[in-house]
Amino acid sequence: MAEFILSAFADEAAEGLDEQLEALAQENIRMIELRGVDGVNCSELGVEDAVRIHKKLEAHHVTLSALGSPYGKIGIRDSFDEHFDKFARSMEVCKVLECSRIRMFSFYIPQGEEPEKYLLVNGHIDAWEPGVTCNATGDGTIITLAEQLAKLKGKIKRSIYFVCWNGHEIAESAGSTWWVDKHWDDLQKNCIGGINIDSTGMLHAVQYECTASREVMDFTKAKIKEVLGEDTNVLPLNKFGDQSFFGIGITSIVGRMGMSDEYIEKTHGANLGWWNHTIKDGMDKVDRKNLKKDLDVAAAIICDYVNVPVLPCDFTRTCADAKKSLRDIMAKADPYIEMESIYEGFSALEQKIARINDFRAELADCSMTDNRVKLLNTLLLKLSRCLTWVLYTYTDRFEQNSYAYTPAARAIPMLA
Length: 416
What we know:
The protein is built from twelve helices and eleven strands.
């Protein structure tokens, strides 16, 4: 037969420890979760108090199941300093009381926030020396964003992870690939998108250039216009850099001040500057004004992404591009290969996306913890998880395409 050991908060029977121990004896309970002693909360006890209490517990053959502390009963953003000083003292009290557990609380989350959801702001550490614009400026942009946004953390409603990957050049994005493999389940459930920051603040750059997952192209274009006043031609994203998150299905944005078409033609395709990946990539290749523009756009995109109640994902363009690609493939394919049902499936999804967008508009001003908003955001993330690997990869969900692998740039790569 199973045996159960009962433990109790005895301070609900009496304030005094002697009376508490008497109440425990009457109920034949030999274990206590110590919370209040003689009217004093356990978090206020010192080592001398613990020595006295321990003698009384031993005399009554009573042991501790835990120290019933109030630690964690503060806001998640409140100062933890005073809390921690008391906690450290309680650790010493536990040693005297031969107690191995402290009961804690999980802090208060501000209403209307989702700290478990996060945006992944990332870039790479470069293997080339000196590597100023590839990618010291990008890493500096990431660090500056982290430093400045930390000052506004009381206004940020979802979390932001700032990461600089190793193994970008010499190991084909090994750092970000490892991260996906190691944190797959968490990314699948909680990552709302990614912002990749690379080669910011380049000399000679004259216009903002951007690629993004189709569902956030309109959102990204609007933010660039808001910050720079430029009507940027945002293009569909493909596999380059540390875009290691297509398989798992995470929406992504990449942008920076870029070179003009004339410059690229003149330098025979040097879209990152003629000095890229050479010993000439020094501090003289940085334009401070361009660096500021890149920083401002990234900050605007990040702040909106983590604070808007409904995620800024519209899959209308995704469906339209998929249908166009299917029409092109079907026109050239063997007529005995049946693809009409796939096309019809995207048409049906297109109609549902229109309804989803109606809901997005209706819920735009609601709290992100409103159950309707949470349900809609869950649906948008599921769509991203399902469609991204199909439309952006030339492999299965759990593998990686090579850097700039040409077939992966086609819409519906596995069919094209």
